[in-house]
Design goal:
18 strands, seven-stranded antiparallel sheet, 3 domains, 1 helix, mainly beta, Adenovirus Type 5 Fiber Protein (Receptor Binding Domain)
């Protein structure tokens, strides 16, 4: 009788202690055992390179899938040309892997070659990968160690219903301070999609920010009735530690002298650093009728910006247009 294995499980008639050699047939039993063992060897193969055992070395064990579909045992050795569903590997190594589908997790590759990788286009922004929170209209709370990650002049991007931008003017251990402006304000709401950039021009960054008008000294420049002149432009830009301001206004000259713009350096622009008394920080112009009078902008030792025109401007002279540009270190 030949064996039914591996088509079906071979059964054997096990003799008892009182069985005779012809019941069950002793020679037939030996034949079935020999045939079944031979069939098992044919299926299992050898470690020399056939059938199931061809990829196993001495001491390796094959895996087992239980009735619940759970993979059991530990895989050792080398697996060639195999397809995995959703594998999880702990403490193992993939040698020259080929993957299909979408990887939604995180992988660390060391000395690996990527063939035809799809890499997201870099837009200059770096995911902060940490939680930011409202502290005030111009400050954001961040995890400790901010000075090791952020610097003055870094650009910020975050979302509070709408996308907002800012530029860092001070870094503390857990607080980032941004330049105050009227375009983007930190509000008391959840911050999401937060990014930073060390680059000068990450995608979408506005570069220029509007600010409230400074309070001018009306003894030099007013609206013709002792009030504040009309500011038509007040904005700034920061690159690294360089601050640039633009300002334009119309009104009336008060007093006869060379000073038109006179205002504090504390608002709305940032205070210069490493400057001495009467340091020139920019230039200005004053238009009266068809005449343009040039001048310079100066910072005093008391923290006041003031313009010095190249000639006196008469008292009560209507100022058709006046403007300034300042650039200094912050």
């Amino acid at each position: 009788m030949s064996t039914s294995y591996p088509g079906t499980i071979q059964t054997f008639s096990n003799p008892s202690g009182t069985s005779t050699l012809d019941s069950p047939d002793h020679a037939g039993l030996h034949t079935n055992l020999a045939d079944t063992l031979g069939a098992a060897q044919a299926v299992m193969g050898t470690t020399a390179g056939t059938s199931v055992l061809k990829n196993f070395a001495d001491g390796d064990f094959s895996t087992r899938i239980n009735s619940s579909g759970v993979l059991q045992q530990t895989v050792q050795g080398t697996i060639n040309l195999s397809t995995f569903g959703t594998p999880t590997v702990t403490g193992g190594t993939f040698a020259s892997p080929s993957t299909t589908g979408t990887d939604s997790g995180t992988a660390t590759l060391t000395n690996k070659t990527l063939t035809n990788p799809v890499i997201q286009a870099y837009d200059g922004w770096i995911d902060a990968n940490e939680e930011w929170a409202y502290a005030s209209a111009s400050t954001i709370t961040v995890p400790t160690g901010a000075a090791a990650k952020y610097a003055i002049g870094d650009r910020l991007k975050w979302t509070q219903t709408t996308v907002k931008y800012g530029v860092i003017t001070a870094v503390a251990d857990t607080v980032l301070t941004i330049a105050v402006n009227t375009d983007y304000v930190v509000i008391n709401a959840t911050i999401t999609l937060n990014y930073y950039s060390h680059e000068a021009s990450p995608l979408g960054y506005p570069h220029w920010f509007d600010v409230v008008a400074p309070t001018f000294t009306v003894a030099n420049f007013d609206n013709g009735a002792g009030g504040q002149p009309t500011t038509t432009e007040a904005r700034f830009s920061i690159t690294g530690r360089t601050f640039t301001a633009h300002l334009r206004a119309t009104g009336t000259k008060a007093g006869t002298n060379r000073n038109l713009f006179v205002f504090s350096s504390t608002s709305p622009f940032l205070v210069p650093v490493n400057s001495s008394n009467s340091t020139s920080v920019g230039n200005c112009f004053v238009s009266i009728s068809a005449i343009n009078i040039p001048g310079v902008m100066v910072i005093s030792n008391t923290g006041v910006f003031f313009s010095v025109s190249s000639e006196n401007i008469p008292d009560n002279q209507p100022i058709v247009d006046a403007g300034l540009t300042m650039t200094y270190e912050i």
